[in-house]
Write a structure and sequence with these properties.
methyltransferase, alpha/beta, 14 helices, 7 strands, about 375 residues, globular, EC 2.1.1.41, Delta(24)-sterol C-methyltransferase, transferase
């Protein structure tokens, strides 16, 4: 394989990359997972991802959009273990109230979406871009519904199934490998559909929203938290443009769209819109602490391992530790570059949040007409 060739993250490649980690159920620590990777494939995956941002042929919006599946799948093959280390099982931001823990705010944020989608016991529900299944498991606990998680990343599907067995939710959940731009489900299959900070990876929002519309039963609800640029984003500002590119680079996104584009895409897909709100910037009770505080943790204010991992000092410590593991050939070559990508993401998200040019929780709730 030449240095400039892209390694396609096929099912076979993903299985070989993570084989030892999945096979060894005792590989629960961050270090043991890094150690268990196929070192050659991990390094090739790092090089592939960086080409989308450094290579003259692939470093442009058109190439990233055309190869969005390669971009996104490679990204999650590289960062999923880092995400679980720093975030737990739910890979998303949340509104936060004073005195509320990270876990409490995560649950409340998810419950709001489940309630907005009118999810109740016995329903068949689709989670689009389900990650390792954290929100799906919470939906089952909170509502009593059966949740199908759709994900195009093999490793995350494997992780979701491991968690489902751990929490004895196999009868209430299913995790399906598939492209959300071409979903492997029949029309009118689900009573409700939702997505939490996942459809931002779509090259065209109308495409994924239309698929959600297609598989939703008439009268059913669609609810999403979307990553968007707000109307405070100034396309003539070099600072704004750099922050957006850094968010895309740090989070495996081909292109971020505006709130106006997201809302119009939902309407064009056919939904009757009932709720639209950028809840990241609502000044209401239960939203006193900025969402980006999770990534802007001070040197001494963190709580627990995950709080430490997200803090400034924790990110520096993690980079140093990973670099040492890489030098000792315990972790694959290029692993420290993955941590650098995630640091880029954290810093740009904080700055974008402070400037209010970006939101990770643009809430859209719509209904599929009965006829």
């Amino acid at each position: 394989m030449s240095a400039n060739a892209l390694l396609e993250p096929t099912t076979e490649i993903s299985q070989e990359l993570h084989k030892n980690v999945v096979k060894d159920q005792s590989s629960t620590s961050f270090v043991s997972r890094l150690k268990g990777k196929n070192k050659k494939l991990q390094t090739q995956s790092v090089n592939t991802y960086l080409q989308f941002w450094n290579d003259s042929k692939n470093n442009n919006e058109e190439s990233r959009a055309a190869k969005h599946k390669t971009l996104t799948n490679t990204y999650y093959n590289l960062v999923t273990d880092f995400y679980e280390y720093g975030w737990g099982e739910s890979f998303h931001f949340s509104r936060r109230s004073i005195g509320e823990t990270h876990r409490e705010s995560t649950r409340r944020h998810e419950h709001l979406l489940f309630s907005s989608a009118r999810i109740t016991s016995g329903m068949k529900v689709l989670d689009v871009g389900c990650g390792v299944g954290g929100p799906a498991r919470e939906c089952i606990r909170f509502t009593g519904a059966h949740v199908t998680g759709l994900n195009n990343n093999d490793y995350q599907i494997q992780r979701a199934n491991i968690y489902a067995a751990k929490y004895k939710q196999q009868d209430n959940s299913a995790f399906v490998k598939g492209d959300f731009m071409d979903m492997p489900f029949a029309d009118n299959s689900f009573d409700a559909v939702y997505a939490i900070e996942a459809t931002c990876h779509a090259p065209v929002l109308k495409g994924v929203y239309s698929q959600m519309y297609r598989v939703l039963k008439p009268g059913g609800y669609f609810a999403i938290y979307e990553w968007c640029l707000t109307d405070k984003f100034d396309p003539s500002s070099e600072l704004h443009k750099k922050l957006v590119l850094d968010i895309e680079h740090g989070d495996g996104i081909a292109k971020l769209f505006s709130t106006d584009v997201a809302l119009q895409a939902a309407k064009d897909a056919g939904f009757e819109i009932e709720i639209v709100s950028d809840i990241a910037h609502e000044t209401t009770m239960g939203n006193e602490v900025p969402w980006y505080t999770y990534l802007d943790v001070g040197r001494l204010s963190f709580k627990g391992l995950q709080g430490f991992a997200r803090s400034h000092i924790g990110r520096k410590f993690t980079f140093g530790a990973v670099k040492t593991l890489e030098t000792l050939r315990i972790a694959p070559k290029g692993t420290a570059k993955v941590q650098t990508v995630l640091t880029t993401a954290a810093d740009s998200l904080v700055d974008g949040g402070r400037l209010e040019i970006f939101t990770p929780m643009y809430l859209i709730v719509g209904r599929k007409p009965l006829n």
